[in-house]
Amino acid sequence: MRGDTPLTGDFGQRLRRLRARAGLSQESLAHTSGVSVRALADMERGRTRGPQRRTVQVLAEALGLDDEEAAALEKSAALGRPRPRAATDPVTPGTLALPRDIQDFTARGPALARLLELARDTGPDRPAVAVVAGQPGLGKTAFAVHAAHHLAPHFPDGQFALDLHGMDPEPTAPRDALARLLGAMGIADAAIPAGTDDRAGLWRSLVGDRRVLLLLDNAVDESQVGPLLPGTGGSLTIVTSRHSLAGLESVHRSDLALLRREEAVELLTRIIGPDRVRAEAQAARDLADLCGHLPLAVRIAGQRLLSRPHERLSKLVARLAAEGRRLDGLQAGSLRVRAAFALSYRQLPSHTGTFLRRASLAAGADFSPETGALLAGLSYDEAVACAEELTDAGLLQSDATAERYRFHDLLKLYAAEQVAAEDGPEIRDAALDRTARWMLRRATAAALHFDVEHDGTALGETDGDPDPDGAPTGREEARAWLEAERAQWLAALRRAHSTGRHRQVVDTAQAMHWFSDLNQHWEEWVEVFQRSSDSARVLGSSRDEAVHLNYLAWAYNMCLHDPHTALSTADAALVAARDCGDGLQEGWALGYGAGALHRQGRTEEAHARLREAAGCLASQDSPQARLGELTILNSLGTLLRQAGRAAEALETHRRSERICRVGIPGRTDELIALYRAVARQQIGNDLAALERWSEAEPPLRQALAAFEAAHMPAWAGPARLDLGHVLSAMAHPEARATLLTARDDLTELRSPRQAEATAALTALDEAGAAR
């Protein structure tokens, strides 16, 4: 044995002598060993007389002790460890030892760091409590156990873990939990008080002057946890629960999130080894995605692959890709994703369970309480209460700003299984039909806020909002609802179409026409108008078919940028319009066909059709014909400019502007202002083509301002790019910023002109470098 450190004596004195001999300060020994400075100070002052064996081991390693010295240090620590306080039938301490740590534990670094900081901040008057909450499968217990092992050296007076069985039909009662904790502290059964309050008092007195770590796993609610929490002392309690335990005061919260994709792949790598993951890197990423980045699901997939070393990752990916078999595939031995969800589902009250499973029928990534209420057959207030209860239970996630909720993908599959098992097809179909009818009535009423041609007359079964008191008022509220519920009303339109409610499909799509013009970057308009034109054909209305085929041709031109299909659709609209003698729809069909021809580079044919369309519409006196004529003139002028005839284009667009100045009976000033903005944009482009740059700038700025004020991003993006071209030619200081914004906007809109914006930026930078 080195030196002259005695074999016997107080642990604190021995530790202090050994530290001094090693020439270490408390801070340096704390850094080397991982034991906090406060814990070391308590040991050396004699406040902590008998730290746990693991703490002694890390101190011995940090001090560089040989085997004999380490054994002597452990012996002095053992002498100071607490003895049973009752002489009768003592219970051996340590019966609530921490579970085994998971060696392949992955991620959660920031959450672990926050717990370490919390552990270091505990003191005699600052016992700390950390709540680890979240949905099933997030790995709350694994994280808490891993954290407890990591933090153990900071709590030399003991670490205790207790499963509270919160998901069992009968969770552990606080009285019984206290009995187990007292027994772990060495209190004999006969000495444990009878009442819960007395047991809690004794427990707190025992730990009040000790640094202990308490892990309370799987708690059901606040009333179960409260009596178990130390009142004083430098302890740390980690509580895991699927419920938020929002009623616990003065606690630190670690609400675990899903893994990031790279973290999920890392977990898979640690389970099955890097070679298999490297060999199928894309399959590993796909597998992580199919598991929804849920730790439990990734672990199950990994354990399944580990038990089948000959199987390729891509085989499991192919199995999980089928939604109907995904939950079946996510099981390995006793580990089952479905079982984890079932524990929580079985505890729900009847109406809350109904809400959860029926909400899985909602379309899209999230849903509103309105949708949940319709599907579950509940009132709005009842639906909100259910959604909040499910959020607290970790089964739904709430939106940060809006009254909306979402499922984890795998939990949504589980809930859908429960619909099939508990409701059956008749109840399911009735819920979907009820919701679809309501959604289409609301969507139609909301869209009519934008329809300048709607005169307030009835629209049959779709007329009027189904809940006038809760209906959107004004365009901004209507726009917000239509955008937020896009997936729902589109799913409702599909259902109405598939179940034969064709008049409702046509009326809803008709109401959407003007709203679609504000959001022409939505690809979904192709489906909307395809279904409405199909429904019009089934109804036997040639006029409705012509109208909706024209809408569909517009969508192929402007939303999908598919001029070939747009042309064939416009030709079909032209045939239907001529069959029913509708000159207005004939003019529109000619115009849409011209636009498709122009996009295909068939300029002469496009020019001829535009001339024919302009003549067809000019011969009619209706306000609708005037609006159509404005559109055709703007398109004709654009074609002339691109053919090198900028002066003729300028005159054509000024003719369009003159019509706007005169006004159109029955059409609002707001609407005419937008048509004039289109004309101003094209006038600016005509002047630019004539290299009259300073004259081109004002009309382009005016057009851009009008489109932005009307919240029309699909129109504002191209106008900003046109302005950027002009500012670049003028060497204007705003040119680069304007082009940058235009490029970003056009990219977000998936516009083909994003490449034009990128090229303009490159040319501007090269010109600047040359100068």
Relevant terms:
two-stranded antiparallel ribbon; 36 helices; disordered N terminus; elongated
Explain what this protein looks like in three dimensions.
It contains 36 helices and nine strands. It has 771 residues and is mainly α. Strands 2-3-4-1-5 form a five-stranded parallel sheet, with helices on both faces. It has a two-stranded antiparallel ribbon with strand order 6-7. Strands 8-9 form a two-stranded antiparallel sheet. Helix 11 runs parallel beside helix 14, helix 18 crosses helix 21 and helix 28 packs parallel to helix 30. It starts with 10 loop residues before the first helix and ends with a helix. The N terminus is likely disordered.
Short description:
With 771 residues, this protein is mainly alpha-helical. 63% of the residues lie in helices and 4% in strands.
